[in-house]
Specification:
The chain starts with 5 loop residues before the first helix and ends in a 9-residue tail after the last helix. It has helices spanning 6-24, 28-35, 39-47, 54-64. α2 (28-35) packs across α3 (39-47). It is mostly helical and 73 residues long.
Length: 73
């Protein structure tokens, strides 16, 4: 098995951010407020314009009850 490229990891992260948020029934605005970021910033996470900080990824993992590695798989 070959390691994933950076772009593959970013794509997985984008997809999983949207998927997990949808599964939990949160809006982008609600998640942004819980993270303490603006809605446009959170939207940028889901569209891949920016990447969440490790702290934000940790908070998301707690919010969704997922391991941090789940966001990249």
């Amino acid at each position: 098995m070959t390691p994933a490229t950076k772009e593959e990891l970013r794509q997985r992260l984008r997809e999983n951010l949207r998927k997990f948020r949808g599964e939990e029934g949160y809006s982008q605005e609600e998640v942004a407020q819980l993270l303490g970021v603006s809605r446009p910033t959170y939207t940028y996470y889901e569209t891949g314009h920016t990447t969440p900080s490790i702290e934000d990824l940790y908070l998301l993992s707690q919010l969704y009850g997922r391991a941090m590695k789940d966001f990249l798989q």
